[in-house]
Automatic annotation (TrEMBL), chains A, B:
InterPro entries associated with the record: Met8-like (IPR028161), Met8_C (IPR028162), NAD(P)-bd_dom_sf (IPR036291), Sirohaem_synthase_central (IPR028281), Sirohaem_synthase_N (IPR006367)
Domain of life according to the entry: Eukaryota
Residues in Siroheme biosynthesis protein Met8 C-terminal domain copies: 161-228
Keywords: NAD, Oxidoreductase, Porphyrin biosynthesis
Gene Ontology molecular functions: ferrochelatase activity; precorrin-2 dehydrogenase activity
Name this protein carries in UniProt: precorrin-2 dehydrogenase
PANTHER family: SIROHEME BIOSYNTHESIS PROTEIN MET8
Segments crossing the lipid bilayer: none
Enzyme class: oxidoreductase
Domain Siroheme synthase central: 132-159
EC number: 1.3.1.76
Species, as recorded: Cadophora malorum
Pathway: Porphyrin-containing compound metabolism; siroheme biosynthesis; sirohydrochlorin from precorrin-2: step 1/1
Length: 254, 254
């Protein structure tokens, strides 16, 4: 067996994960600008958030989230009992000694933690994230250039089709429509194989441009297990001007 | 204070994280195709990996990694003691009952775990990751379309400048060179502010195209706290054909 047939280990990276903290309790220690960013991060992932920070240290955004009831709030400095029943801890305070103490307590209790600005006291780092509905794209430079990560994220966001997030929802809808057209459990493998064919046949731009009518037309090709090209699909919808009369340019057309 | 000045909470996302598992112990239960992918993921992040799986269930890639000593190997089914001193658990076995049992044990011991194909029994999901040296880009559709994530990842990889990963290393090098040119601790804030100006002034394409000579020329602008445009930089390097004789198009040129 040739050694080269398997991907080589690259090393030096992080394990990039989509952490599930929906309805989990996240403790944020500190109420400054960095804390404000962390709080938004975890609220966007549907966490239940407790902020511990003396009121005089609150930045306006944190104060706003407290006032709106988006987070629970404890108006004092951190105390060890704050860690009870907590699933994740994020600290952002200008007190290295207190931070280090919190990190040690978290490790004793096996709670995942990020001590801002102290890389060795972090189970995980944050990166620069582009969000578009169900789509999340995270850029990490593994600590080598946080501002560079922002540049790359902006460049990616500019180049993606405008409605990429929406396209994910549409593909999900296509899958649902397919289940209605071909509901049988025994159809499962054929359904899955056909959806894979669809994914392979269309570019990101095609998928983003697809509308409900296109999807209905496309579903007619499930029974014969075929996937016409996007231009072909459009042509069949009566836009025959764009259609040269032959089906030769259709992918999988029998 | 207007409410609209702060970003609105979007909800429904994951918390995308760069997990640090360098030299941490990851237990992989199972030795099939999914396990092979997981193993490569964690090896790329420099984890120490133990694979538990009867030898007859090993896929060729997993067998190869065992043979090469890239992972530690236990030739039997999972036993609870396998969880001792383990920081993360990934299971990929075709046995829902055994998987569920492992998940429960992990939760009792507060070990982060991913049970393949059982979303409710996952602390985290994997996504589609593009890797280019220090750069990692992760695409997640939050479970809405894993194949769509691959399409987006491929599209991003195609559109990024070819040497984007290398450019991160170069920006890191520029930072090092700057510390030699202006080593004082008291220069810290000016150095940081100037690096931010550099990041803001250049496009991703500029940064990817920059060579060592460009960086040396650029560093001459640190003292006056300026950042010339990339075309201007090239012009000053004797490529005067491309230079129109005026410095009017230079950013921050006093």
């Amino acid at each position: 067996m040739g050694e080269t047939q398997f991907p080589e280990v690259q090393g030096g990276g992080s394990l990039i994960l989509a952490w599930q903290i929906r309805n989990k309790r996240v403790l944020v220690v500190g109420g400054g600008e960095v804390a404000a960013g962390r709080i938004l991060n975890v609220l966007n992932a549907d966490a239940k958030v407790t902020v511990v920070s003396p009121r005089e240290g609150l930045n306006p955004e944190v104060a706003y989230r407290i006032e709106k009831g988006q987070v629970d709030y404890v108006d004092r400095k951190f105390e060890p009992s704050d860690l009870d029943n907590v699933d994740m801890v994020l600290t952002a305070v200008d007190d290295p000694e207190a931070s280090s103490q919190i990190w040690k307590l978290c490790k004793e209790r096996k709670i995942a933690a990020n001590i801002a600005d102290v890389p060795p006291e972090c189970d995980f780092y944050f990166g620069s994230v582009h969000r578009d509905g169900p789509l999340q794209i995270m850029v990490s430079t593994n600590g080598k250039g946080p501002r560079f990560a922002n540049i790359v994220r902006r460049s990616i966001a500019e180049q993606l089709p405008a409605n990429t997030g929406e396209a994910i929802t549409k593909v999900g809808k296509l899958r649902q429509m397919l289940r209605k057209v071909a509901p049988g459990i025994e159809e499962g493998p054929k359904r899955m194989a056909w959806m894979i064919k669809v994914s392979d046949a269309y570019s990101l731009e095609d998928l983003c441009a697809m509308d409900e009518k296109d999807m209905e037309t496309l579903l007619r090709f499930y029974a014969p297990d075929q996937v016409p090209r996007y231009g072909c699909l459009k042509a069949m919808e009566g836009e025959l001007d764009a259609f040269d009369g032959s089906f030769g340019f259709c992918v999988g057309w029998g």
